[in-house]
């Protein structure tokens, strides 16, 4: 599904954010990405979501080499990647329904098919009854679930989450992770960037650990003593 092959990334000015990163995530796999602030987690997510390009090496999604894509092809590959942000980035003056519908509207869906898909996505995160609400009337955990519904509404095979539980208490974090597990169980690949070691320890999934731009561990737990 996803492959990093000898990927390095230097930012303008020469700062090396990632150095020779290698890993693969199979279809239907759920993986954590962890490391200190500045270790390179966001850079990895930006390379996958095609916001940044690698300086050297290859990032592949479904065997498509992202660095060889023409600009005009990027939107098509980007559809395969659903992104969940820490601060959810919802449109606060639009209803829950409209927020979730947005990716479909951009793709040209209208009418019954659009409504059906929005309802299916809201149902999966347990928020069908809130579709007419404005986001600010929802709790933090509910707002995060709206962000998840928006990310999955066009059924991407890969979900990326950047600190999705960063602003939530442990119980709500656990609820959000259960939502990811439910998508994972129907075959979606999930990559969750987080520095919440308690969460990682409780869930016991494969964990990639970054330190100063290098991958220092790939296993069931983060490398000991890194964080
Ligand atoms: P993390 O998500 O693990 O906190 P990042 O990937 O955001 O780490 O950042 C890795 C390093 O790259 C940091 O030292 C950061 O300051 C630097 N960095 C990130 N984005 C840029 C940028 N656009 N220009 C220059 N340096 C950057
Ligand atoms: P986040 O938690 O989303 O990584 P940051 O505050 O680390 O937020 O970064 C915000 C933005 O600034 C990101 O787009 C990141 O790439 C960029 N950035 C981070 N570090 C640097 C840096 N040293 N120089 C320039 N841009 C940076």
Automatic annotation (TrEMBL):
<keyword id="KW-0132">Cell division</keyword>
<dbReference type="InterPro" id="IPR005286">
    <property type="entry name" value="Cell_div_FtsE"/>
</dbReference>
<comment type="similarity">
    <text>Belongs to the ABC transporter superfamily.</text>
</comment>
<dbReference type="GO" id="GO:0016887">
    <property type="term" value="F:ATP hydrolysis activity"/>
</dbReference>
<dbReference type="GO" id="GO:0005524">
    <property type="term" value="F:ATP binding"/>
</dbReference>
<keyword id="KW-1003">Cell membrane</keyword>
<dbReference type="GO" id="GO:0051301">
    <property type="term" value="P:cell division"/>
</dbReference>
<comment type="subunit">
    <text>Homodimer. Forms a membrane-associated complex with FtsX.</text>
</comment>
<dbReference type="InterPro" id="IPR015854">
    <property type="entry name" value="ABC_transpr_LolD-like"/>
</dbReference>
<dbReference type="InterPro" id="IPR017871">
    <property type="entry name" value="ABC_transporter-like_CS"/>
</dbReference>
<dbReference type="Pfam" id="PF00005">
    <property type="entry name" value="ABC_tran"/>
</dbReference>
<keyword id="KW-0472">Membrane</keyword>
<keyword id="KW-0067">ATP-binding</keyword>
<protein>
    <recommendedName>
        <fullName>Cell division ATP-binding protein FtsE</fullName>
    </recommendedName>
</protein>
<dbReference type="GO" id="GO:0022857">
    <property type="term" value="F:transmembrane transporter activity"/>
</dbReference>
<feature type="domain" description="ABC transporter">
    <location>
        <begin position="2"/>
        <end position="227"/>
    </location>
</feature>
<dbReference type="GO" id="GO:0005886">
    <property type="term" value="C:plasma membrane"/>
</dbReference>
<dbReference type="InterPro" id="IPR003439">
    <property type="entry name" value="ABC_transporter-like_ATP-bd"/>
</dbReference>
<comment type="function">
    <text>Part of the ABC transporter FtsEX involved in cellular division. Important for assembly or stability of the septal ring.</text>
</comment>
<dbReference type="InterPro" id="IPR027417">
    <property type="entry name" value="P-loop_NTPase"/>
</dbReference>
<keyword id="KW-0547">Nucleotide-binding</keyword>
<keyword id="KW-0131">Cell cycle</keyword>
<dbReference type="InterPro" id="IPR003593">
    <property type="entry name" value="AAA+_ATPase"/>
</dbReference>
